[in-house]
Prior knowledge:
globular; Nucleotidyltransferase, domain 5; RNaseH-like_sf; alpha/beta
Amino acid sequence: MGKTTFGKGCHLHLIDGSAFIFRAYHALPPLTRKSDGLPIGAVSGFCNMLQRYVEDSTGDDAPTHVAVIFDKGSHTFRNDMYDQYKANREAMPEDLRPQIPLTRQATLAFNIACEEMEGYEADDIIATLSCQAREAGGRVTIISSDKDLMQLVGDGVEMLDAMKNKRIDREGVFEKFGVYPDRVVDVQALAGDSVDNVPGAPGIGIKTAALLINEYGSLEDLLERADEIKQPKRRQTLIDHRDQIELSKKLVQLDCDTPLTFTLDDLEVKEPDPDKLMPFLAEMEFRTLTKRIADKLGVEAPVVADAPAPAAESPEQAADAPDFAKANYECIRDAKALQGWIERIREVGHVAVDTETTGLNEMTADLVGISLCVDAGHACYIPLTHKDGNADDLFGSDTLLEGQMPLQEALDLLKPVLEDESVLKIGQNMKYDAKIFARNGVQVAPVDDTMLMSYALHGGLHNHGMDALSERYLGHTPIPIKPLLGSGKSAITFDRVPIDDAVPYAAEDADITLRLWQMFKPRLHAAQVTTVYETMERPMIPVLARMEMQGIKVDRDTLSRMSNAFSQKMAALEDEIHTLAGESFNVGSPKQLGEILFDKMNMPGGKKGKTGAYATGVDVLEDLATEHELPARVLDWRQVSKLKSTYTDALQTHINDETGRVHTSYSIAGASTGRLASTDPNLQNIPVRTEEGRRIREAFVAEKGNVLVSLDYSQIELRILAHVADIPELKQAFADGVDIHALTASEMFDVPLEDMTPDIRRQAKAINFGVIYGISGFGLARNLRIPRAEAQGFIDRYFERFPGIRTYMDDTVAFAKEHGHVQTLFGRVIHTPEINAKGPHAGFAKRAAINAPIQGTAADVIRRAMVRMPAALADSPARMLLQVHDELLFEVPEDGADALIDTARGVMENAADPAVQLSVSLSVDAGRGANWAEAH
DNA sequence: CTAGAGCGCTCG
DNA sequence: GTACGAGCGCTCTAGC
Length: 936
């Protein structure tokens, strides 16, 4: 959208943000956010007022430009003139303070410009903009009832009292002050203002002031001719307090020359953006407003957390729940019994749900039974497809056991509750169960997930599996599954477990899940991670479930042909290696290889590790390869072997028979930093760095008529580093689109950019990444294969040029030591329990603590983008398929690729808004093609 | 025969 | 003794 230049015919609206906030605050009872008790009344009122404003400002008189203007900081140039200015002002109420930044976020969420200037009051900014707009020939409406702004009225500038819906023009000002706008400051200077602590002339109010000004024409003339005033007392007052009156005029006179960092053109009215607005409203848990605005915009309202936080629950109360030994676990075998449970679920409004299936892979596992729990200690299991587990028949009997409800009947009864917006479904690793249900025609929503709650609360502390959580937080060891299923070749699937054994095991899982939920729910707020959970954990469940079920098409023939080629190559290399070694051995055994290299052939540098085996990693072999043929051939063999075993062979086994596609599974709570991890198979480590490896990606293809589209963040971690460590040079480089590694090299080695050599740049690149990883001389030396002292020299030089980096690292480690955790820009907490350890552990923990906020913030950003993507692409045929940390891969009909890139890039580049104002922009590169190699 | 540790290599 | 964060295939060994 091109910007129009502000001028004749334009209409500027300026909203007095502070007035909105205070009015909202005082007009509403002290509302709090249900899930965590955050005071939210003023924000709620503010949003309602903004919404009403937006709705009202349509039609002929609609603004072309608009901004909400806020005060910033308490010290302004007026305090420099008069230290008592606004000194009487009451301190801001405690429950209002945390709402102030939220109103800024709200404004941005409404897609309205939001402006403030350090050292200036909002009124000065409004004055300056009014003057500028008037000079450009435009009209101005100031939305405020602040009388201090009335001096600006006239010549196309009006005020609008939003509350009374009353327009104030020149005549309106005259009514209020008895003078026209150009003399308002004179009147105010005389009358003073007790609220703002403007002294004025004692004993003179607005009426007297207006009288005097009208008689003498202006304040200056009045003071000049004060001796002519007839009333002796009034005369003396004006003469005695002349200085004070002149000071007062300066205090009330608004500054039309505020140095603005933006222009009128930046304030152009923008369409509301549901992708910004809806998530914010949902985050604030404004149910009614969210729905009303969603209807207005014609979008689907996001799920707003519905469950009120249970009254602050102490561990003692949790202990009041029935002992697990006394728990009552029922087996549900008919519709009547199930209906009773459903009624109870509706009464309470939430239920813990768990599914039992025939396997761990959600895309192939079949539903065997469902457990439910509404009250701690009272759960049920509904067996559905249990079969005879007797080993008489080698393949078991396929006849269903008696005493089970038909699967479809149970699903039909449960579906309305599981899909009911007003019933919260609680699970442990709910994505698994949601996918199982989805494959059975039930779209479970809304959901809570105890695994993700634990992750938001305790990321980095321990894993978040149910067994561990139960042990740790409930002091109860769950019934192990092993004895029921067996292990190894003789293992059976859950449908072969006798129902009597299945009931206590399955029902207990739901019971545990409910108890964990009751314990975690209030703790989210106490730990201030409710927003993290609500915006970056919970909403990932449906998004990832959809992606995983979508899968990506992988061409088996391509992989198979590659496998054959690799086999031949490996065999040839193996022969060569055996000949070079003079004997036959297993090339794939590092132990045997080490013995050949260092014992038999006596090559230099043999170092044994802790297990007594020689190290034969790539570093070692690369060094030896410069002198010897054998290690070089082993490296070749290893590359091919890796490609074949991990990729071309293993990947084929993951192609789903029904869909012909590969369905990975993302673990949301796996990585401590907030990153996702892809498993079964891992599609986040498909080769790309070598030409040969990259060819694996040719097997990842789009369906006929479609293309794969890849969008990836450019240098996101370095950008975040530049922001958090506040490095002006790096920020500037990103703003200018300069090659960041070249710039670093230029700064460090004093080489002009135009004289940059690839080698110097390469070293700088290594240092840039090293910094993100918590740099050490040793590590850099090893990476660059240079002496340690030289590497240390580089690092010293780097810190010298970018001192902010050193400060960031020191501050981060100090924060971790004090709090036991670090945080991302979005509030994700990453615990660092080892940070105060002694010995070598300390180094690890320090570097991890330095890296975590950077990697974690990047992870948060892409999570936010992913959460917003479905709504943004609601009208698009595009499907999101994969996430690879800083990349999203989509599949779309060819003719939809351009639109997709446009939309998805917008979502990704703005994913930090409105929660965090980054001082660097995010940039997204896009590619497309018939396969992943072409698209990347 | 199986589970788990260790190594090595793939990705961002 | 070291770069940060992950997952997985292979080999080897301890122990059933």
